Amino acid sequence: MPIDAGSLHFAVGPAIAFLVVGVLALFMRWAFGTGYGRTRPPEPPAEEGLLTLIATLSRRESAMALRAVLSDAGIRSTIRLPAPHRADVLVFPEDAERARALAATFPGS
Asked: Which residues of the chain carry a pLDDT beneath 50?
C-alpha cells in the first residue's frame, strides 16, 4: 500500500494518545492534588487536652533544662514544639501551681 507523502494520517494516532494522557494527567492532578491554595493550614489546638501550659521558651534546650528542674521536684512534664524557636512546657493540672512557681525562678523563663 503506497504512502502519500502529503498525508498526516500517521500522526493522528500518536496525537490522540498524547491528548488522552494529558487529559488523564490533569484529571489526576485535580482529583488527588494536595489542595494548596484552596484551604488554610490547620490552626493549632486551642487546648492541650489533659496537660496545662506553664511556660513558653524560645529554645528547646532551655525547655529541656526546665523539664529537668521539674523532674527533680517530682513533677512530670513534656515539651511541645509548635513552631521554630518556640518550646512549650506542659504539666498535669494538679502540678501546675508548683510547676509555675519553679518556672518563675528558672533563669530561662
From this structure: none
CA distances from 40 to 48, 50, 102 (A): 21, 27, 38
Which single residue is written with the C-alpha cell 502519500? 4
CB 99 within 8 A of CB 68: no
CA 93 to chain centroid: 27
Q: Scan for cell 525562678, then name that residue.
A: 105
CA distances from 50 to 37, 56, 69, 83, 101 (A): 34, 17, 21, 21, 20
Nearest alpha-carbon partner for 99 in 64, 39, 53:
53
- For residue range 75-100, list pLDDT tens digits in order: 999 999 888 889 999 999 999 999 99
Segment (H or E) for 15 = helix 9-32
